[in-house]
Write a structure and sequence with these properties.
Rossmann fold, 11 helices, 13 strands
Length: 350
């Protein structure tokens, strides 16, 4: 059966072709491999592995192999993908040398599975420490941490694009900030371990994304808009629609993450995302336009002119200057590709 992501995977390979020799006949370990980011990393890994005959293997940490098999049987059955059972905070280390480790667990769209912000914080920090201990034991050369733009805290409305050297932070007195605080501590741990033990750590501060494998039952606005479109129902915006975001297509994300892992500077964080600003209202109307259903877009609240407009938009100048990375797929194309994938697979990815 033809992979519905084939054109995207060819696109990823064309932009990363010269990087893959580094993992030829090597073993790679990944956490979060069954999630939104992880599925794209696995898809692109095995695509490169097969096309370039790398004879490489990627080991995926998971707590539920059967659930992943049901979700993505072509990935679960691929000979280059092996599974290691366990929880990210406590799994037993395999007696294998991993040249590269990718720590992509605890994406922002799945933290609702935890009961409290403190539980989120503990899972993130304990999981990161456990993975760093694995990196020491398995003699890793390079480790990639998928961090988050949440580490900056609330973006001031007067700052259009947030830079990596911005010194803001989440509110320490906000008991709901466990995810953001956990990612900050994870970056500190990675930097500390890298300096003490001599392996390279690459840090990707990820913002907002769109593409196949996104759970349409997540709390993310883009997910709810696409789900409404697939159901041919109205699109409802819970706020005032003025919040500014930007979205990077997942094929571009895969290009960026592989490039940062292989070529990024050690302990030098990179913002990962798009700098093409779009309001939530504009996004809803664009999704409706791409579907072509003439869906009604409703906005729950009127904007209070006395309140600043919320922003969550990165500067990506560092990634461009250092690694020549930039978005290659527009938000409209990204929405179209995503819709085609959900329609083709019949998946809702709850």
């Amino acid at each position: 059966m033809i992979n519905p992501l084939a054109s995207d995977l060819d696109h990823i390979l064309s932009h990363t072709y010269d990087l893959w020799e580094e993992v030829r006949e090597k073993q790679v370990f990944i956490t979060g491999g069954t999630g939104f980011f992880g599925c794209w990393l696995l898809e692109s890994f095995i695509w490169a592995n097969d096309k370039l005959e790398l004879n490489s293997t990627i080991h995926v940490l998971t707590r539920n192999i059967q659930a992943f098999t049901n979700k993505a049987p072509h990935l679960a059955s691929h000979p280059a993908i092996k599974f290691h059972f366990g929880d990210v905070t406590s799994f037993e280390f395999p007696d294998i040398k991993f040249s590269h480790v990718i720590h992509a667990a605890t994406e922002v769209n799945v933290i609702s599975n935890c009961n409290t912000s403190l539980e989120v914080f503990n899972t993130i920090t304990e999981g990161t420490k456990h993975i760093l201990d694995l990196a020491i034991q398995c003699e890793t050369n390079k480790l990639l941490l998928t961090s988050s733009g949440a580490v900056y805290g609330k973006q001031p409305s007067q700052i259009n694009y947030i830079l990596e050297d911005y010194q803001g932070s989440p509110d320490l007195m906000d008991f709901k900030s466990g995810y953001a605080q956990g990612k900050r501590v994870s970056e500190f741990l990675c930097n500390s371990y890298a300096n003490k033990h001599g392996f390279e750590v690459k840090i990707a501060r990820c913002f907002a994304f769109i593409g196949a494998y996104l759970s349409l039952d997540s709390h993310l606005a883009i997910a709810s808009f696409i789900k409404a479109g697939l159901n041919e129902s109205d699109i409802n915006i819970q706020g005032d629609g003025t919040t500014c975001r930007s979205y990077l297509y997942m094929a571009d994300l895969a290009i960026w993450l592989w490039t940062i892992l292989f070529k990024g500077e050690n302990c030098y964080p990179y913002n990962v995302g798009s700098d093409k600003v779009i309001t939530i209202a504009e996004l809803a109307n664009l999704v409706s336009k791409v579907f072509g259903h003439n869906q009604l877009v409703t906005i729950a609240k009127e904007h209070d002119p006395n309140q600043p407009i919320e922003r969550y938009v990165p500067s990506i100048q560092r990634a461009f200057d250092s690694l020549n990375l930039k978005p290659t797929i527009s938000i409209e194309e990204a929405i179209m590709h995503s819709i085609n994938w959900y329609s083709h697979t019949g998946a809702r990815y709850v």
